[in-house]
Design a protein that fits this description.
The chain is α+β, with helices and mostly antiparallel strands and 150 residues long. It is 45% helix and 18% strand. The protein is globular and about 45 Å long.
Length: 150
């Protein structure tokens, strides 16, 4: 189990150091801002959508390793998916990070996002991991208010 935890930590650190899709989308159809007032994580999410599908997604911002890695892996995981599929993925992710340590994880559905399974052991970090997802939900709904973890 220690080797698996080390691998998960390395994936998170890699996505923090070299986040994927870390840029502005100048021609984005939707944009949302997210903020975690407890720790100061702040991000802007950009979407291109067509026919209820996420065609392109990117983000910019500042935050802790968990928040930035979550945003990076989330952008990889939702690209090309329907809004309904994104919501299903969000629910699986949220259930995992807010669940109990050692719970069964649907790794087929979550894919690389399963690296956040250990977050449930650190309740204060759950908000860091879910901020990008809450911001994505705001963007999909085309909300103009800032998405928060509160």
């Amino acid at each position: 189990m220690s080797e698996l935890r080390d691998l998960y930590q390395e994936v998170i650190l890699d996505h923090n150091r070299r986040p994927r899709n870390f840029r502005a989308l100048e021609d984005a159809d939707r944009k949302a801002e997210g903020f975690n007032p407890l720790c100061g994580d702040h991000l802007t999410l950009f979407l291109k959508v067509r026919d209820q599908h996420v065609v392109e997604v990117a983000f910019q911002g500042l935050g802790c390793a968990i928040s930035k890695a979550s945003a990076s892996l989330m952008t990889e995981g939702v690209k090309g998916k329907t809004f309904a599929d994104v919501e299903t993925l969000y629910q699986a992710f949220h259930d995992m990070v807010t669940g109990q340590p050692g719970q069964q994880i649907d790794s087929d559905r979550l894919g690389k996002l399963a690296v956040f399974a250990g977050v449930c052991e650190f309740p204060v970090r759950v908000k860091c991991a879910t901020l990008p997802w809450r911001t994505l939900q705001a963007a999909l709904k085309d909300q103009k208010s800032v998405a928060t973890t509160e």
